Amino acid sequence: MAVRDDDLRRLPWPRRARADEEGGRGLLLVRRLSHASGVTWVWDGLDLIGKQVWFELREGVVLSA
Asked: Which neighbouring-strand residues pair with 54?
């Protein structure tokens, strides 16, 4: 599975969100809940047009806190 956007100015970067912030936990959650994850650049020929954050889920994996 993957999510994509076309904003090349904002790179996906994990950060520590403060307790009162509503955002900033996406990559942390993806990394904690997935078997594997990463970022891939999206190209149209020779033109860089976006980025995609991908992740793999595995059946039967038990998550711990």
From this structure: 2, 38
